[in-house]
Amino acid sequence: MQGFKSFADKIELEFGKGITAIVGPNGSGKSNVSDAIRWVMGEQSAKSLRGSKMEDVIFSGTQNRKPLGFAEVSIILDNSDRKLKIDFDTVTVTRRVHRSGEGEYFINKSPCRLKDIYELFMDTGIGREGYSVVGQGKIDEILSSKSEDRRHIFEEAAGISKYKYRKNEAEKKLAQTEENLLRIKDIVSELA
Ligand code: ATP
Which residues cross the membrane (predicted)? Predict the structure, then answer.
């Protein structure tokens, strides 16, 4: 990552197999690491990244350092087991945001849409809607949330989110087509 929150300079963090613990004094940037992971996987809520707008993730400067113009995070995943449905051994997902608010996404360095990242991670448990990053207060939220919201977590784990998503997309297309049909019928009856 580079220019993301407190990480002004480009840094690389390696997460091996098993557990990685991040320790450090209060305010040293531990949570910013997990924010970066959620952000690169498509998090859209600035609030859940502890900001008020998305540009708040860009390094805002310190007493002796000027603010930066953009933030960039890449996550490099080992995909030799093809858990992600893309035919590469390594998958690199990159997200960049500029002060203007303009954002960019890349999969293996090719520009893509947020939708592509969302679909890449769907039903894997990782990603924006995944359950692999459990933030502070998340457990409370899960326990106290409505049962429908809770069901979403089980649906992601069971791997059925993508079917629900596809159904939703298909329904949207269907509604659009019905609308078009109606318009055509109107034209036909006008001509008749
Ligand atoms: P705690 O142990 O208190 O939870 P932490 O180690 O998790 O702390 P973080 O919350 O990750 O710390 O980091 C907070 C620090 O990040 C603060 O010092 C804050 O000023 C800095 N920070 C957050 N956003 C930015 C930004 N856009 N630019 C520069 N610094 C930032």
Answer: none
Contact 2, 9 (CB under 8 A): yes
| CA pair distance 73, 96, nearest whole angstrom | 7
3-state helix, strand, coil in the chain (%, to 5): 40, 15, 45
Residue 54 carries which DSSP code? G
Q: How far is the CA of 111 from the centre of ligand 1 (A)?
A: 29
- Type of residue at 61: G
Nearest atom (ligand 1) to Cα of 33: 11
Instruction: Please indicate if the annotation marks 74 as binding a ligand.
Output: no
- For residue 32, how far is its CA from the centre of ligand 1 (angstroms)? 6
Dihedral, CA atoms, 44, 103, 113, 6, nearest 10 degrees?
-60
Whose C-alpha lies nearest to ligand 1, atom 30?
Answer: 6
Q: The whole model's pTM is what?
A: 0.81
Q: What is the mean pLDDT of each run of 10 residues along the chain (192 residues)?
A: 97 91 93 93 87 92 95 97 94 96 96 94 81 75 80 81 90 97 95 88
Q: Which of 107, 115, 111, 112 is nearest to 87 (CA)?
A: 107
